[in-house]
Amino acid sequence: MENLPPLALSVRQPSAWAIIHGGKEIENRSLGSIRAGKMTTGTICIHAATGMKEDEYRYLHWRFAQHGTLCPRPDALIRGGIIGVVDVVGIITRSDSPWFGGEAGLQLENPRAVDPIPAQGALGYFEWHRAGAFARPKPWMKNYGRSGGDSHTLPLFPDSAPMFKTPPEKPWTKG
User: Fold this and answer.
1) Contact yes or no for 161/70 (Cβ under 8 A)
2) Which of 11, 84, 149, 160 could be 16's S-S partner, Cβ–Cβ 3.0 to 4.6 Å?
Protein backbone atom coordinates (compact mmCIF):
# COMPACT_ATOMS: atom_id res chain seq x y z
CA MET A 1 0.00 0.00 0.00
CA GLU A 2 1.46 3.34 -1.02
CA ASN A 3 0.70 6.80 0.31
CA LEU A 4 0.20 5.73 3.89
CA PRO A 5 -1.33 8.27 6.27
CA PRO A 6 1.28 10.42 8.04
CA LEU A 7 -0.26 9.85 11.49
CA ALA A 8 -0.11 6.63 13.48
CA LEU A 9 -1.31 5.29 16.80
CA SER A 10 0.93 2.90 18.72
CA VAL A 11 -0.92 -0.11 20.15
CA ARG A 12 0.58 -2.96 22.16
CA GLN A 13 0.43 -6.47 20.75
CA PRO A 14 -1.65 -8.55 20.40
CA SER A 15 -4.23 -5.73 20.25
CA ALA A 16 -2.55 -4.15 17.22
CA TRP A 17 -2.80 -7.48 15.37
CA ALA A 18 -6.46 -7.83 16.42
CA ILE A 19 -7.29 -4.38 15.01
CA ILE A 20 -5.88 -5.25 11.61
CA HIS A 21 -6.65 -8.99 11.39
CA GLY A 22 -9.00 -10.02 14.20
CA GLY A 23 -12.07 -7.83 14.01
CA LYS A 24 -11.20 -5.58 16.97
CA GLU A 25 -13.42 -2.61 16.16
CA ILE A 26 -12.69 -0.46 19.20
CA GLU A 27 -9.38 0.70 20.67
CA ASN A 28 -10.07 1.53 24.31
CA ARG A 29 -8.48 4.66 25.75
CA SER A 30 -9.25 7.11 28.52
CA LEU A 31 -10.88 10.40 27.56
CA GLY A 32 -7.77 12.14 28.90
CA SER A 33 -5.45 10.17 26.62
CA ILE A 34 -7.74 10.82 23.64
CA ARG A 35 -7.60 14.57 24.32
CA ALA A 36 -3.88 14.64 25.15
CA GLY A 37 -3.06 12.53 22.08
CA LYS A 38 -5.09 14.82 19.81
CA MET A 39 -7.04 11.77 18.62
CA THR A 40 -9.82 12.48 16.19
CA THR A 41 -11.54 10.79 13.26
CA GLY A 42 -9.71 10.03 10.04
CA THR A 43 -7.46 7.41 8.51
CA ILE A 44 -4.37 6.46 10.53
CA CYS A 45 -1.65 3.85 10.55
CA ILE A 46 -1.53 1.26 13.31
CA HIS A 47 1.90 0.97 14.88
CA ALA A 48 2.65 -2.23 16.81
CA ALA A 49 4.47 -1.08 19.95
CA THR A 50 7.69 -2.80 21.02
CA GLY A 51 6.42 -3.63 24.50
CA MET A 52 4.51 -6.82 25.23
CA LYS A 53 4.44 -8.56 28.60
CA GLU A 54 3.62 -12.25 29.02
CA ASP A 55 0.74 -11.65 31.42
CA GLU A 56 -0.80 -9.10 29.01
CA TYR A 57 -0.42 -11.49 26.07
CA ARG A 58 -1.88 -14.40 28.05
CA TYR A 59 -4.92 -12.36 29.14
CA LEU A 60 -5.58 -10.86 25.69
CA HIS A 61 -5.08 -14.23 23.96
CA TRP A 62 -7.76 -15.65 26.26
CA ARG A 63 -10.00 -12.55 25.88
CA PHE A 64 -9.81 -12.57 22.07
CA ALA A 65 -10.73 -16.26 22.02
CA GLN A 66 -13.98 -15.30 23.78
CA HIS A 67 -14.80 -13.34 20.58
CA GLY A 68 -13.73 -16.18 18.27
CA THR A 69 -10.39 -14.54 17.44
CA LEU A 70 -7.26 -16.66 17.83
CA CYS A 71 -4.14 -14.54 17.66
CA PRO A 72 -0.70 -15.72 16.57
CA ARG A 73 2.01 -16.88 18.92
CA PRO A 74 3.81 -13.99 20.63
CA ASP A 75 7.04 -14.59 18.70
CA ALA A 76 5.13 -14.29 15.40
CA LEU A 77 3.75 -10.82 16.15
CA ILE A 78 5.54 -7.85 14.60
CA ARG A 79 6.61 -5.31 17.22
CA GLY A 80 8.14 -1.93 16.54
CA GLY A 81 6.55 -1.03 13.24
CA ILE A 82 3.59 -0.01 11.12
CA ILE A 83 1.40 -3.04 10.38
CA GLY A 84 -1.74 -1.56 8.87
CA VAL A 85 -4.15 1.26 8.24
CA VAL A 86 -7.60 1.83 9.76
CA ASP A 87 -10.33 4.46 9.63
CA VAL A 88 -11.24 6.05 12.96
CA VAL A 89 -14.92 6.84 12.45
CA GLY A 90 -15.86 8.00 15.92
CA ILE A 91 -14.89 8.56 19.52
CA ILE A 92 -17.32 6.76 21.80
CA THR A 93 -18.10 6.55 25.50
CA ARG A 94 -20.69 3.76 25.21
CA SER A 95 -21.00 0.70 23.04
CA ASP A 96 -22.61 -2.73 22.99
CA SER A 97 -19.53 -4.10 21.23
CA PRO A 98 -17.76 -6.86 23.15
CA TRP A 99 -14.51 -5.03 22.30
CA PHE A 100 -15.54 -1.97 24.33
CA GLY A 101 -14.21 -2.11 27.84
CA GLY A 102 -13.22 1.27 29.10
CA GLU A 103 -14.09 4.86 29.66
CA ALA A 104 -13.89 5.69 25.96
CA GLY A 105 -12.67 4.31 22.70
CA LEU A 106 -11.84 4.92 19.09
CA GLN A 107 -14.39 3.29 16.80
CA LEU A 108 -12.54 1.61 13.94
CA GLU A 109 -13.54 0.46 10.45
CA ASN A 110 -11.92 -0.78 7.24
CA PRO A 111 -8.67 -2.26 8.59
CA ARG A 112 -6.07 -2.90 5.89
CA ALA A 113 -2.82 -4.76 6.43
CA VAL A 114 0.39 -3.41 4.95
CA ASP A 115 3.82 -4.93 4.57
CA PRO A 116 5.36 -4.14 7.97
CA ILE A 117 7.58 -1.06 8.14
CA PRO A 118 10.01 -0.56 11.06
CA ALA A 119 9.19 2.66 12.91
CA GLN A 120 9.49 4.11 16.38
CA GLY A 121 6.29 4.71 18.30
CA ALA A 122 5.08 7.54 20.52
CA LEU A 123 2.08 8.37 22.67
CA GLY A 124 -1.14 9.60 21.07
CA TYR A 125 -1.29 10.27 17.37
CA PHE A 126 2.22 10.86 16.04
CA GLU A 127 3.91 11.50 12.73
CA TRP A 128 5.76 8.34 11.90
CA HIS A 129 8.72 7.65 9.66
CA ARG A 130 10.68 4.55 8.72
CA ALA A 131 13.37 4.00 11.35
CA GLY A 132 15.27 1.29 13.16
CA ALA A 133 14.39 -2.38 13.14
CA PHE A 134 11.60 -4.57 14.40
CA ALA A 135 11.85 -5.73 18.02
CA ARG A 136 13.33 -9.19 18.43
CA PRO A 137 11.31 -11.83 20.28
CA LYS A 138 12.12 -12.19 23.97
CA PRO A 139 12.87 -15.66 25.38
CA TRP A 140 9.38 -16.05 26.88
CA MET A 141 7.89 -15.34 23.44
CA LYS A 142 9.95 -18.06 21.78
CA ASN A 143 9.06 -20.60 24.48
CA TYR A 144 5.37 -19.75 24.84
CA GLY A 145 3.22 -22.87 24.55
CA ARG A 146 6.11 -25.13 23.66
CA SER A 147 6.83 -28.31 25.54
CA GLY A 148 9.06 -27.27 28.42
CA GLY A 149 8.46 -23.61 27.52
CA ASP A 150 5.86 -22.66 30.11
CA SER A 151 3.50 -24.53 32.36
CA HIS A 152 0.35 -22.59 31.47
CA THR A 153 -0.31 -23.83 27.95
CA LEU A 154 -0.84 -27.13 26.22
CA PRO A 155 1.52 -27.41 23.23
CA LEU A 156 -0.26 -30.39 21.65
CA PHE A 157 -3.12 -28.29 20.25
CA PRO A 158 -1.69 -24.98 19.01
CA ASP A 159 -4.84 -24.01 17.09
CA SER A 160 -7.21 -24.56 20.00
CA ALA A 161 -8.71 -21.71 21.96
CA PRO A 162 -6.88 -21.04 25.22
CA MET A 163 -8.52 -22.84 28.12
CA PHE A 164 -8.23 -21.88 31.78
CA LYS A 165 -10.00 -23.23 34.88
CA THR A 166 -10.54 -19.56 35.74
CA PRO A 167 -10.07 -16.62 33.39
CA PRO A 168 -6.68 -14.93 33.67
CA GLU A 169 -6.60 -11.74 35.71
CA LYS A 170 -6.35 -8.44 33.84
CA PRO A 171 -2.65 -7.58 34.28
CA TRP A 172 -3.20 -3.82 34.39
CA THR A 173 -5.60 -4.12 37.35
CA LYS A 174 -3.31 -6.12 39.62
CA GLY A 175 -2.79 -4.26 42.76
Assistant:
1) yes
2) 11
